[in-house]
Specification:
This protein has 401 residues and is an alpha/beta fold. It is built from nine helices and 25 strands. It has helices spanning 11-22, 66-69, 130-139, 153-164, 185-197, 240-244, 290-305, 368-380, 386-390; strands at 3-7, 28-33, 72-76, 80-84, 89-92, 97-99, 102-105, 109-111, 145-149, 168-172, 201-203, 208-211, 215-218, 223-225, 228-231, 235-237, 253-254, 266-268, 273-277, 283-285, 316-321, 324-330, 337-343, 348-355, 358-365. It has a five-stranded parallel sheet with strand order 3-2-1-7-18. A five-stranded antiparallel sheet has the order 21-22-25-24-23, with helices on both faces. A four-stranded parallel sheet has the order 11-10-9-15. Strand 9 (145-149), helix 4 and strand 10 (168-172) form a beta-alpha-beta unit. The longest helix is centred in the C-terminal third of the chain and has 16 residues, at 290-305. It is globular. The structure holds flavin-adenine dinucleotide. Flavin-adenine dinucleotide is lined by residues 7-13, 32-35, 42-43, 45-46, 79-80, 106-108, 127-128, 154, 238, 241, 270-272, 288-291, 293, 317-319.
């Protein structure tokens, strides 16, 4: 009977176990993770859960009984410390060693530390786990001020949640606009406007020179006080274990479209991977998203159970801030023009990024139809008429040539 050991019981690792069962795998499954809680969803930690609109149980990936009922050996609070590829064993920090036929590395990513004086102060907050989220939530509330360092999705969502809980928030961004790495200028301008309408202050082009649990010193010497300081400046792939085992890594574990690493018996999934993107000439990229974790989990489960490789999916992502539901499909690689459909000033629009006459990315705010159309157009490499695409009066489907 084949044995699969999964290191990391997060969204990707938990999903691999689930899909293996769904696809009829009848071997042994060990799912081991550092955190003390069963696999859960992280997105609500900065959104509904943080605002108190969702309870603990709604975070769970599967019901509590799922693992026992499916004979999945779930081990929580244990970390893998080494992989012996020749002997095909993994050693854990509790001294246990497990042999495997297939190993799946699903160790995710960790919050990047702020490289300034005080950057490793234990009183600073980050937002990755339920433990982090509990700390943050305890610091938010009526009249309390949150300072967020980093204008990325997690930071902006946390600022919106702080506001919803009756507090105030300031977001400090080093670049000249928020979301610079991950969104178009139109989208950055939209979120900047929405946050300022809600009373969240966004300061761009700001250097932070020192931090502590309750203060942030800026480059000009001024000091901001706060009940909580949240650092949200990106994530780093937890690929150390794989590197130590000699697997090919390049800021993430390098995998193919079966999520297989440079060792045929070892797979890797989720945030920790650098993977090919079939809709973008197989360019290698790190995707930090739930849809990616699920797609790769299906790839692994298919490869292990001998099913055909699943259909290639278009990468996508979402974010919720106030009444704005953002959905992004694709990536703007090689884009040479942009088409805006709808009006960014009325909170419902989409920015399409085109390369020649093909859509390569769509960023949609409260515009589900545009998102769906863009995602489909990317998947099918449809030729597009940009004038029709821009014309809100024309049905969006008629933009396909
Ligand atoms: C606050 C927040 C909001 C987000 N919002 C969105 C969103 O709106 N939309 C979206 O698509 N994505 C969102 N994401 C990203 C999404 O949650 C991640 O892409 C997803 O969780 C990746 O799954 P993963 O299993 O690869 O990593 P993780 O879910 O991080 O799981 C990895 C697990 O491995 C464990 N681990 C690490 N090293 C070891 C070891 N040596 N041994 C054992 N276990 C180990 C870790 O403790 C962790 O539990 C958000 C993330 C955060 C933090």
């Amino acid at each position: 009977m084949a044995k699969v050991v999964i290191i990391g019981a997060g969204h990707a690792g938990g999903s691999v176990a689930g899909f293996l069962k769904q696809y009829g795998f009848d071997g042994e499954i060990v799912l081991a993770g550092t955190e003390k809680v069963a696999p859960y969803q992280r997105p609500p930690l900065s959104k509904a859960w943080l605002k108190g609109e969702a309870d603990e149980s709604s975070l769970q990936l599967r019901s509590e009984d799922f693992y026992a009922e499916n004979a999945i050996d779930l081990r929580l609070g244990v970390s893998a410390v080494s992989i012996d590829r020749a002997a095909r064993t993994v050693t854990f920090d509790d001294g246990a060693a497990e042999s495997y036929d297939h190993l799946v590395i699903a160790t995710g990513s960790r919050a990047r530390k702020l490289p300034v004086t005080g950057g490793s102060d234990q009183g600073l907050l980050e937002l990755r786990t339920t433990v982090d989220a509990e700390r943050l939530k305890a610091a938010l509330g009526q009249g309390k001020r949150l300072v967020v360092i980093g204008g990325g999705y997690v930071g902006l969502e946390a600022a919106a949640s702080a506001k919803a809980l009756g507090g105030s928030a300031i977001v400090l961004e080093r670049m000249d606009r928020v979301l610079q790495r991950v969104a178009s200028p139109t989208l950055s301008a939209f979120f900047t406007r929405r946050h300022s309408e809600e009373g969240v202050e966004i300061r761009t082009g700001v250097e932070v020179s020192a931090v502590s649990a309750h203060t942030v010193t800026l480059g000009d010497g001024s000091v901001l006080d706060a009940e909580a300081v949240l650092v949200g400046i990106g994530a780093i792939a937890n690929d150390d274990l794989a590197r130590a085992a000699g697997l090919e890594c390049n800021d993430g574990i390098v995998v193919d479209l079966d999520a297989r690493t440079s060792d045929a018996n070892i797979f890797a999934v989720g945030d920790v991977t650098r993977r090919p993107l079939p809709h973008y000439d197989d360019v290698m990229f790190r995707l930090e998203s739930v849809p990616n974790a699920l797609e790769q989990a299906k790839q692994v489960a298919s490869a292990i159970t001998g099913r055909p490789q699943p259909a290639h999916e278009v990468p996508w992502f979402w974010s919720d801030q106030y009444d704005a539901k953002l959905q992004i499909a694709g990536l703007p690689f090689g884009a040479d023009s942009q088409v805006v459909r709808g009006d960014p000033d009325v909170n419902s629009f989409a920015v399409f990024h085109l390369k020649g006459d093909r859509i390569v990315c769509v960023e949609a705010i409260n515009a589900a139809q545009s998102f769906m159309f863009g995602k489909q157009a990317i998947g099918k490499a449809m030729a597009i008429n940009p004038a029709v695409l821009a014309d809100e009066a024309a049905p969006i489907k008629s933009a396909a040539v």
